[in-house]
Amino acid sequence: MDYDGDGSPDNEQYTSMNLMSKEKKIYHRHSPQQIQKLEAYFEECPHPNESQRQKLCNELNLEIDQVKFWFQNKRTQSKAQDERNSNICLRAENERIRCENAAMKEALKNVTCPPCGGPLFGSDEREHNVHKLRSEKVLLKAECDNMKAAVNNYQQIMLDSLTSVQRQQTFETLTSYGMNPYNPFNQPSSSESHTIQPQLLSQMDIPQLSETAAIAVEELKQLFTDDALWVMSSIDGTYMIDQESYEKFSQSIKHLRNLSARVESSKDVTVVPIEATRLIEMFLDTDKWKMLFPTIVNNATTIRTLGSELSTKENCNVLQVISEQLHILSPLVPPREFMIVRCCQQISDGLWIIADVSHNIVNSDRVSPSCYKRPSGCLIRALSNAKTQVTWIEHVEVDHTPDTHRMYRELASGSSGYGARRWIVTLERMCERMALSSIPIMPPTDWSETIPTVEGRKSVMKIGERMLKIFNEMLIMSGKVEFPQQSKCGVRISIRMNMEAGQPPGLVASAASCLSISRTPLQVFNCLRSNSIRHKWDALCHENVITETAHIATGSSETNYINLLQHTLAGDIGKNMEQEPDKKMMLLQECYMDALGGMIVYAPLDMALMSIAASGKVDPLKIPILPSGFTISSDNSGGSMASENGGTVLTLAFQILITDKNSKIKNVTENSVDSVSRLISKTVQRIKSLFNCPPE
Length: 696
Prior knowledge:
Layout: E1 12-19, E2 22-29, H1 32-44, H2 50-60, H3 64-108, H4 123-175, H5 205-225, E3 230-232, E4 239-241, H6 243-250, E5 262-272, H7 276-283, H8 286-292, E6 297-307, E7 318-326, E8 336-348, E9 351-358, E10 371-373, E11 376-382, E12 388-398, H9 406-413, H10 420-437, E13 447-448, H11 454-474, E14 480-482, E15 492-498, E16 506-517, H12 521-529, E17 545-553, E18 561-568, H13 573-578, E19 585-594, E20 597-606, H14 607-615, E21 628-634, E22 648-660, H15 670-690
Antiparallel strand pairs: 1-2, 3-4, 5-12, 6-7, 7-8, 8-9, 9-11, 10-12, 11-12, 13-17, 14-15, 15-16, 16-22, 17-18, 18-19, 19-20, 20-21, 21-22
């Protein structure tokens, strides 16, 4: 039997030894300070890994087995306590229902006839009425089933007539690859999230949604104002909700009861250069919401909007039902999908609160939901000089641990994953970008040989913004097909028929892989963005010289910018500039680095197309791009991003157009897929060689 150390048998550890052929047990009681530290760590991380356990051993002067067994016993105690609390709640609910049932039975004894005030029906009359109602129910149900069948039949006929050509093309494409056309491309694997199906809201649902939103707003107000509900994390120093205090005032229940489920909470604050009313307008428009958080919000749709039709400046009491999908960093991190109620309420002059909360009305089709959003949101305060203070709270239940790859598991579950810090850092970066894109002159930080006007600069910045968005949408890698491992984490391939506007039409293969590098994220970022050594890893350079022809700042940091790159043959630059200008390629690249990591995203464009984009005279949304690139994040082994220690988790993701819409060969061959896999594997090996990574 194992023991922990707070005085009870379950909190003591023992070792045994043989003395004079007689076994004797020696008990070790943990000190109150040791117990307090272990309890605090358990609240944040109930499943510490080996390195975390070793760190606790060094801090508390305990053996590794003592820490290991303490956490095992504590998890068992916590599970038992949760079950006891659940049983108590169920008993109370059962007793309440029994009391209501008894009260209803008593009320039925005194029922009178409403029209005449006569005595209640006798048993024969009641039986006759019940039989009549049941017969009417059967008839109505049969009529309802007939109507549903007719509607479904009509919809199927319309669907078949509209999509027969497209389905035939898909069948030909996939069967030529030797696959079931309705399996690898249309059916998600078990590790992928199920798409949330929006529910039609009836008029009866609206009061319940309004009540849920009102409760969420009041809960958020208390979380924003009561510092006693927050504790500082002993792992990364961020603030998290004290769950014991929270449960006392909110009386909430856990919606995810799997042992692997966990609660994530975080808070952060910033000041951004944007007017408060404009920021609120972007929060309440899902298209602008996606644009504001392109590296987090993969998709968002407003199902219904309720409330005043007045403008944001006059009245901000708005209620929305929104479907959103969030995703970060890598295909190895599962996306999070929510159906939420979003409420925006003006508290006082210059002060607003926006609350998001999941609701069971719009989540009823989820068979096994893996995430639930508790009341979360932000407090928006208007400041002088067109600035806004934003305080952000994230509070969710999530059960994605089994689906997250071990490289990203700790990162995705911490404050640097989907927490408030990531939302705040992204908001800061995007607000700086919007401020720079709106200035009417060419700033001194920019220079260009190919972008002569302010309109051209704005056009290129919009293309860069869209390039980031397309790249992040691709990272989910839906409909993936696994291939043999050629790097530490293997290569993941996704094939799709691309018909999206602003992207090259045709069959596109996406490939992704990730690796761990024993350098800091900033070192990796600086190395990969360096033009002088790019030819050592980038296959698009063909080992040629890279020159920068334009540089546009997108933020206050020198790491945030868009640049145009051109590769030419060394010693023959003048000849290449004169001949075949329409066939020379350029790279449009966007880089950024913030407190949680960075990205380097680029797309090839021929010079003729780049000239059109830089002119500012065409809609940048019509310029077709197919981006590839890297995501760079800390492996959390060295603390903060600014630390000189620690390593990096690097994700590579490439997109390649296999066949265009005019090609006669529309089938996917094994050779083309193998070529994509070899390309990314070769790039991985080049990057490992660049950073002197040890052989596997």
